[in-house]
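fwd from M.: "can u put these together and see what the complex looks like"

so here's what she sent:
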Amino acid sequence: MTEKVRTRFAPSPTGFMHIGNLRTGLYAYLFAKKHGGTFILRIEDTDQERKVDGAVEMVYRTLATAGINYDEGPDKDGGYGPYIQTERMGIYKQYAEELVKKGGAYYCFCDKERLESLRDENGVHTYDKHCRNLSEEEVQRRLAAGEPYVIRQKVPEGVVSEYEDMVFGKISVDSADIEDGILLKSDGLPTYNFANVVDDHLMGITHVIRGTEYLSSTPKYNLIYDAFGWERPKYMHLPPIMKDATRKLSKRFGDANFEDFILKGYLPEAIVNYIALLGWCPKDNREKMSMQEMIEAFDTDGISKSSSIFDEQKMRWLNGEYLKAMSADEFFEVALPFVEKAIGDAKWDKRELAALMQTRVDVLSDIGEKLAFLNEFGEYDLNMYIHQKMKVDFNVAKQAVKVAICALEALSDWTEEGIKECVRQAAEGAGMKAGQVMFSMRVALTGAPVTPGGAIEMAIVLGKEESLQRLKFSQELLEKAE
RNA sequence: GGCCCUAUGGUCAAGUGGUUAAGACAUCGCCCUUUCACGGCGGUAACCCGAGUUCGAACCUCGGUAGGGUCACCA
């Protein structure tokens, strides 16, 4: 490791940031940090037509909440700026001209009509190198005459361009299959193909980490490095993340959007942890890892070559693991907004509720439905009282509720211990099993078949007054049913 | 269509010539239990197909098949 590692993440601000884009940034970050290197953010905003307002801010925000901190970027000058591509527009033309002088590029005056006529039966066209061998005089004359032109890459003939990809191994492409692509457009601005190479070189990028969509064009870029006499960077291409077997995650359809997940109540750490696992497996097969642990464990060997399908179910599970690992206070803090949203102005003890939720939700937004019974108590289906295993039926339930009311009305110690003891004794006195009373009481208190906690927990959350009110309501309901 | 790449349970994935082919999610069953959840235990379930190399192939080679990527004055 002679030179210091420098990696970059170069998103184009054309919309939301999905999990796939983020993962590319994450790997570039992990790789840099693993090797004590520098991680750079560069905004590739040259495509003004696809540009989306606010998208740049979204990139900053997303990286910050994800904990992916860049060492150099638009707002963090490291001496290699500007870091926003549109601010670099002045530099490409001179490099393109330099490349022409070095024999790696040439002027082309072909117009769009001519290019169109080159299409084959599949609608694919390959430039026929028409202007590749124009004489020096002719080029100068046409340039002087003000003819519009582009500068094209002069791909060497009869060579095989190959390189060793860090995840895919040897990639080789015959130069006959590489087009003399446009480097500098007729408006004087560079195409991505060119800007990308120039920027990466000027910014001293040592390891280019990006998606596989560039895998087969990398040999072409390498030819540009060669023509300039620049050192080629190392490459790490990452397989795509799919939404199903045949479709990639797409920005256009808002798939797997990072910020949406945050809104839904996923923890940023859990999302980042999960996406790190999509396409990479640490040597010891760990799954739950902090950013620091991922940095330490990150290695190129564990990166997979095949695409993977994004599985929200597994991300939910991981998120649940993070939630359960929190202290009660930490959990309360993140859960509070969701609890408040669920109960509105109601008086319930939020801390109690949050405590009940911690082992019961994988994603914070699940809190709403789990707490719905609090504000939705009313007439309910009495069949809920029938429970074979519990040995509860209408009659048992009726008696149980009655017993519970009698006992609890006199109870002053409204705590877990107090209620438990009280109900237990009352059940015994009535010749019933404690479980039968508990079960009936829980249903009577909530009117719900499933609740986040048992009878005692529900009674505590509801408080004595509300509990007795609900029990009496249920008692009437049961009697009316006769 | 040309070129590049990929292929282990439903999903994520270990595995690099000899394994009872890990583990996790999901799923199913049991235990715990005042419902649900948590926790614990267990089950079902995979090497795309065909040749070859080899004493031996999920692993190596070739050919199919399937899927992805790319072939723009987009990035």
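replying to her w this: Chain A has a mean pLDDT of 93.
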